[in-house]
Write a structure and sequence with these properties.
It is built from 16 helices and two strands. With 428 residues, the protein is mostly helical.
Length: 428
Amino acid sequence: MRKAPRYCSDVSASTGIEKARSVGGAGISDRERTVLLAMSMALVALGIDLLLPAFPEIRADLGLAADSNAVAGLVTTYFVGLAVGQPLFGPLSDQFGRKPLLHASFVLYGLGAVITAVAPSLPLLLAARFLWGLGAAGPRVLTIAIVRDRYEGEAMSRAMSLIMSIFILVPAVAPSLGALGVALVSWRWMAVACLLAGLAMLGWATRLRESLAPEHRRPMSLGSLVEAAKIVLSDRQTVLFSLAMTMLYGSFTSYIGSSELIYADVFDAEALFPILFGGVALLMGGAMLVNARFVHRFGSRRLSVSAMGVYLSAAALMVASAVLTNGRPPLVVYLIAVSLAMGCHAILIPNLNAMAMIPMAAVAGMASSIIGAVQIAAGALIGSLIDRAFDGTVTPLSAGFALLGAVAAVLMGAGLREKAPAPAELVG
């Protein structure tokens, strides 16, 4: 029997300790590792955002109506693959290590991009996007597991914020690059660009050291998997923070999936979409940098409570402006509200993720995969329901932000009130 260590965020916050557990010799620097992990996770966003400006061309290429929202399925199926892949990569990485699974995920990512580039029909295109998302699940779950292998407490929250602040540069610039690419060549070349990015990361990741020590690896037996899953699902703090993230992710996926139509149909600003969407992404990156800077001073909990308050206020502004204008508020009002909400989202996600992962040191791969799968699968489903309710106004999106934000606030509050249970024990 060996105990699964449970680290106290208050200790880490006061000491600023970052405990590395890397395996092997001298390896890459902390700075290069941070950038590498950030760019690995950025592949997830690249697979979405580079294609968003191409939706009109995709509709025309596939013979769909100009106002068809069927292409939103390209986002939904990608997220479903992203969710399904995480329960595979997480437990496998607990046995075989993070590095080989990361390499395999890059290969799968590239395969999905290749099939997308040549798919002649919407059904095959959706299947390719599912495979693409399956490959993207590796960088998503393994980056968090590697961070958990190396850091504790508030230091983990700071590391995640730094990684995500770099990664957010991709959705900031990808729509503009996608719009430029579509103007010059076919939208299918955007998938080829993602293939090349995946191959580049595959080569770069050979420099990454394995973070999971051999003595911490777990066999892939059914009993071991069930025991690890029970540890994750029996920790009330982990479950509550994970469900709170799921609610927020539902709003986020809906915002991504419907933004192109909202800017085009509601505000008649289709040409400004790459700039406006990228501007909000840059604001999110700035919020993550602020979080990384101040998390040691104020703590993850205090920052999360403050961010949630602003998030709910922004959602209330969205609803009020939608009600008063029949769902068509001035563009500047909508931008202020959605920017505030997305900025707070950027603070809440890394902090909630870190607080959910703190008790999970001994089962980091399994925990990261379960948390990520639930968050993304349920979030994508909720987001798609909001997308389907699109009626030519911002009312469905605004109502979604308010309702899901309120539920997330209740779940987060319950998680913050939970007392830390006794450390869990693992067999093997």
